Amino acid sequence: MITNTELEYKGDLYPTKIIAFEHEVDSICFHTDNSVILKVTVLRDSLIRFRFTTKGYFSNDFSYAVDKSHSHGYNFLEVSEVEDYYQIKTSKVQCRIQKIDMRLSIYDLDENIILEDELGFHWEESYEYGGNIVKMSKASKDGECFYGLGDKATQLNLKGKRLENFATDQYAFQKDQEPLYKVVPFYIGLQNKKSYGIFFDNTFRTYFDFCHERRNVTSFWAEGGEMNYYFIYGPQMQDVVTTYTDLTGKPELPPLWALGYHQCKWSYYPESNLKEVAAKFRQLKIPCDALYLDIDYMEGFRCFTWNKDYFPDPKRMVAELAEDGFKTVVIIDPGIKIDKEYAIYKEALEKDFFCKRADGPYMKGKVWPGECNFPDYTNPAVREWWAGLFKELISEIGVKGVWNDMNEPAVMEVPNKTFPMDVRHDYDGNPCSHRKAHNIYGTQMARATYHGVKRFAYPKRPFVITRSAYAGAQRYTSSWTGDNVATWEHLWIANIQVQRMSISGMGFTGSDIGGFAEQPSGELYARWIQLGVFHPFCRTHSSGDHGDQEPWAFDDEVINITRKFVNLRYQLLPYLYTMFWQYIEEGIPMLKPLVYYDQDDIQTHYRNDEFVFGNQILVCPILEPNSVGRRMYIPRGSWYNYWTNEEVKGGKEIWVDTKFDQIPLFVKAGAIIPKYPVQQYVGELDFDELTLDIYYKAGKEKSVVYEDAQDGYDYKKGRYSFLSFQTTGKEKELIIQLHKEGKYDTNYSKYKINLIGLPFKVNTIEIDNVEVSFDRNTLEREGYLIVDKEFTSLHITGE
Ligand code: MIG
Q1: What residue ranges of the chain are covered by domains with CATH 2.60.40.1180?
Q2: Out of 61, 392, 638, 645, which residue is the most buried by the measure of CB atoms under 10 Å away?
């Protein structure tokens, strides 16, 4: 069995000595005696691709993950031959390839070793399928740490673990359970204060072993395909992650409402039930932007149909909900019911769009509608057809978002829970079996869905969410972590999964708040919502078979906590939107695990719970029942307790007291946090001021605020507003400089400035060098100032 592959399996084959090499522009090919070719391509000074073949020639080069528009170009490239090795040098790294066995080592320019082959590339020929099982092993030093790999339900630091990538419908998964729904074969190594990344772009079932099988060896291998990986040099983890995200692609901005609160259940029906849920949110004044229809809205689970008994007039209903600020999101699964009367089935059959078995029959499997056939989304013509199917839902009925589920793909009542491996796929003109296409199937479905929703939502922005995904899926879709359970352990898992997704390029992710399977206690639900509002995607969802999971299913205290935290999320929308903008512009993850935030502080290397939301808010969930606080690590620097405004110096573990309606939250000293007023849904209110919470710091700090029309594409034409603030705190002075960019004029005209932690009493205020009068009373009693938004410098002095 492959899972037990011994790295030193006796049938393994290895490259022999290098007998020739050629250098062409950005690529260098090395040929061995036994027909191995290693092609090294320098994409950027810190991004190098290593591609191997054992056949003496390469097959067609094709990747679903790599974004064709990724940045490339290097400053320096020098290839040289030394006695024992060849050297490829860029302005960031030097790669040495040994002549005798093709083993590779990578150094920084100061001769520090970054990554070194142990056995290096080796392979086992596959008698059963042809091709190879391709393997790689790297030497690992003591103290090296590993991060990344998407949605794994285990500690953030993967040292000592073996993980498997095979998209799987893993209902009620457990801690450490493998494999899960998503496949992101990208990891980050951190050793001796230097980070690097490896992206093994291979869609076959892959494995990663981080010093589990052997203490000082890290390895990865795949059941087929090529040994084809990208090496990314940091040395900061920040650089590794942004480079990886640039390589596999960034999304466009979602509509701002998609960052609001979403409510879901399996399922809301009939219409009156959905309407009651909507009304209750408004009545209780708990903000909410989106409501979901799960599979029961359909006619016998046939995609793109409606059950007219439950929803007699979907267009009217969707419009009525929209009037009250609710966007309707509907589920669409990949299985198409085999039913001669069903138009979509007939059309796909006519066009020959379903996946086939090796010998010709269509792939048949049971899912919710009963026996189904499954579109081959790896065929571009199928994707185009699928996109077109959204016309009625989006343009006519007015649905605003689509939820893709079961796209691992999941099949019921079969032991492997998915397609048989002989199923054929087009793979965009590279025909193959399900062994190769399995892990990419969900992403191609979400991609087709995205193009459809986008086409018909235009000029508004689309919203798509998927359960299964492969690296790069972030270009098309958001995601959730699948069928979790209403337990405290799952709250712990969700916290780590979403952080891990964030540093794995797929930042727009959340968990089913409260847990999907089983029923949370009020306390657990409250603790979950307190974390969930700090996840980029924020949705309560439940299987619905254990009772209700709307906020009002719990007692008043929990309802109040839910309102308080959802309100806070709505206040923080400009902050959240700004971090999203940094994600789409620069690939910066929205949530930053502490190790990402400060890799040089070794205290962060094994931390799981705390993370930085955006750049300046430190969040630490409460993960145990009956808590009155918890111990947590405060990263280096100076922070303010959000609830008490007390300042703490970081770089140490502390105890933080919290009430039931609080979790530890800290704001970085010097930060300016923008806030909107609480709205029941995005765009509900017209408001005339943007609140800026300014946290005093002795020294300098930068803060930015990105805004635009909150939907549509005008932002791509420069119609955005980008504020960049610099705060400088001195003993008796605070200077705030504001620089503006962009052509979008925000609706508000002034800032309400809350001064927090000011160590002096305000004496004078100058705006753009002119002293202004101010309301000393409000400032002293309530701590705020009102300032016209058109300023470039605000100078506060004290005594
Ligand atoms: O077999 O559509 O993960 O969110 O509510 C279960 C019903 C199918 C699994 C999804 C879940 C969804 C449920 N689906």
Answers
A1: 591-668, 686-798
A2: 638
